[in-house]
Fold this protein.
Amino acid sequence: MNKTIRLFYLFFAVFAGMFISCNSSEPASPTDSSIAFNTSLTYDSLTDINGNKYHTIIIGTQTWMASNLKVTKYLNGDLIGTTSHATKDISSEDTPEYQWAYNGDEKNVAKYGRLYTWYAITDSRGIAPKGWHVASDADWTILEEYLSSNPGTSPNLVKALAGTTDWAVVSDTMKVTISSDLSLNNSSGFTALPGGRRYAIGSFNGMGKFAYLWNTKEYDTYTAYYEIMGYSNNEVEKTNFSKKYGYSVRCVKDN
C-alpha cells in the first residue's frame, strides 16, 4: 500500500513539473500578442529594465518603439512612484513623478502601456531603455515631416501612424479620419493606439478614442507639449498642457 502511494505521488510530481514547465515558457513574439502590428513590415525587438518586450520599427532615418512604454523603474533601478490609489488628486503637488495603469487596472498595460507625468519622463535617472530616449520635439517633427511626404499606403499622416484596432468608429464621410476604414491605417508600423490619459485630479478618460503622447519639450513652468491623435480627426495635433497629467510615452533609438 505504501509503495502504491509513493508511486502515485512520484507520478503526480513528474506530471505537475511538466505542466508548469510547458506553461511558463516565453512567448515567441518580441512583445505582447494582443497588439495588431503591420504584418507586411519587419520589426525588431527591445527589452526594458523590467523585462517588458517591445516591437521596434525603422521609419525614415529613425527607429521608434512600436508600442507604448510600460516601465516602472528608472534606469538605475529606482522605482517610478505611483499613487496610493489610482484616482488620487495630485494637483497640489509641485513636481509629481508618477506612473499608472489606465484606471489602475494592470490588464490595460500590455496593450496600452503606462501613463506618466512629465516630471517622471524627464527625470535625470532616465525611463527609456539604455541607448534610447523619450521622444523630443525634434523627434516628433522629423517623424511627422517624413510621413507627411511618405505616408505609404495610408491616405494621410494620422492614418499612417494609427493602429488598425481599438479606435472608436464614426461614420463621417466628409474627411479621412483615423476611424474611417481602419484597414488603411498603420502603413508606417508605428501602431498608435488610443490609450487615453489621466487628469491631475485623478480621473481617467479617452481610452478607445484618443492617443496622448508626451513630447519632452517644455512650454513654460507648468506645461509641456504632447501629441494628440483622435479617432475622428484627420491630423496630428501638438499642444501643451499640465505637466502633472498622465500621458503615454514612445521612445526613439539614439543615433
Remarks:
- The two ends are 70 Å apart (CA to CA).
- The chain has one domain: 44-253.
- The longest strand covers residues 210-218.
